[in-house]
Amino acid sequence: MKRIELKKGIMDVYDFGGIKLHAYKTNDFIDNEVFLIEKNGRLVVIESPCFFDNNIELENYIKELNAVVDGVLLAYHMAGATFLKNAKKYATKNADEYGHNGGGKGLIDKFTGAFGEIFDSSIHTVTDYISEGSIEIAGIKMNIIPTNEAFDIEIPEINVMYTHMLGEDCHSIVAGHDHANAIINVLKGYKEKGYKYILTSHYTPEELKAVDTKIAYIEDLKNIASQSGNMQDFKDKVKLKYTNYSGENYLDITAGIFFN
Q1: pTM (2 d.p.)
Q2: N or C: which end of the chain has fewer CB within 10 A?
Q3: What SS3 state is found at 215?
Q4: How many domains does the chain have?
Q5: CA–CA gap between residue 206 and residue 257 (Å, rounded)
Q6: Domain residues for 256?
Q7: How far is Cα 8 from Cα 23, in angstroms, rounded to an integer?
Q8: Based on the domain organization, do 79 and 7 belong to the same domain?
C-alpha cells in the first residue's frame, strides 16, 4: 500500500496488478471515505464526497491520474452534486429514493444545519438506474447487492466487498434487535466468502478480522440494551466499555432507535 498525503485528505493506493484501488480518506467532519477503482486508464468511483473542499481535492487528484471517469456509483451518499458534475451517476431506484426522500435525505438536512455553507447539500441526479446482479463499468465487473436503504458492491476481480459501515473501532448505526441480527448474518456471509478487504464509506479498507470484532460488538450492543433502563443508561454503558471507539454520533442514533 502506498500513502499519499493531500492538503486535507489522505489517499491510500492498493495495487492488485491489473487494478488499483485508490481509497480517499476525506478527513471531513463525518469521516467519509470515497473509492476509485482504476483499470487500464479508466475509473469507476464509489460514493461522492460531500464537502466542497474535498470535492475539489478529489477532482484534482483524478485529473493528475489522467484517467477517464466512466461513472460514479452512488449508494448511501447522494450529497455533493458539484463533484464530477458531468460524469454518469449510477444507483438503484431504492438508493435514489433513500438519498432524495428517505433516511439519506434526512441526514443531508441534518448535516446542512450542522455544517452550513462548507457542506455541499446538493443531491446528485441519477443518470443510469441499475438493479441486482452483474454490471460492468470501466472494464470492471461488479455485483450489485440491494440492501434496505441502498446497495452493496462486490468486486470479484480483487476479492473486495463495499458496504456502508463496518469500522473495527468505530460505533455503527444499529436500528434495533432485528437490524442487529440482520447485520450479523451479512457479516458472517463476508467471512464465508473470504474477502481480501471490506470497504466502507466511513472507514479505511479493513481485513476480515474486523468482521469478527464487529460481530462481537453488535452482540454486545444487544445485551447491553436488554440490561439498560433508558437511552442514556445504554449510551453510558456502551461508552464505558468501548472507551476508544470513534463515531459517537452513530451511537447516539443507535440509542435513539433502541429506546424510541
Answers
A1: 0.88
A2: C
A3: helix
A4: 2
A5: 27
A6: 166-198+207-260
A7: 14
A8: yes
